[in-house]
Amino acid sequence: MADKKEKKIKTKQQKAALISGIILAVLFVLTLGTKLATNPNSPLYRDYAIMIMPKSISTTFEDKELVLYIEKNKNYDKEKSQPLEAFQVYYYENNDTSKEKVYLKNGTVLKGKKEQSNMMVLQFLGNATITDSIIRNILNKTLVVLCILLVCWLIYIWYLDWCRRQDKKAHSA
Length: 173
Hints:
Layout: H1 2-37, H2 45-52, E1 56-61, E2 64-72, E3 87-92, E4 101-103, E5 108-111, E6 116-119, H3 120-172
Antiparallel strand pairs: 1-2, 2-3, 3-4, 5-6
Helix pairs in contact: 1-3
C-alpha cells in the first residue's frame, strides 16, 4: 500500500518536473526570440520600431501648431534606401484627419523663409529609445532568470533520476 502511494508521489513529481521544464523552455525560447526580433539587423525591427514609437508628435512651424504622425514606408528597399527612409512622416492640413495625408520628403520638413530643416524621423526614434532601453533591460534580466531556473530544473531532474536509481539499488539488494 505504501509502495502505491510512493509511486503516485513519484509520478506526480515526474509530471510536475516535465511540465515545469516545458514551460521554462517555452518561456526561454519566446524571450530569446523577442530579444532577437528587437535587434536592429532583424527583418522585424521596423515593425518593432513603429510599435514603440509615439503615435504622434506636436511641433510648431511658422507659428502654427502641427501634429506629425509616422508610419512604415511601403516603398522602402533595405538594399537601396537609407535606414531612416524606412519610415514616413506625415501630417494633416489644418490638423483635419478627414483630409488627405501630407507626407514630408524623407521625413524632413522644409518650411518658411529661413528654410528650417528638421529630421522628424529622428525625433520619433529618439522618443522610442527610452522604451527600447527599458524593453532590452527587461529581456536581458528575464533571460538571466530563465537560465538560472533552467539550471535549477536540470539539477532537480538529475536529483529525481538519482533517487530513482538509489531506490532500485535498495529494492534489488
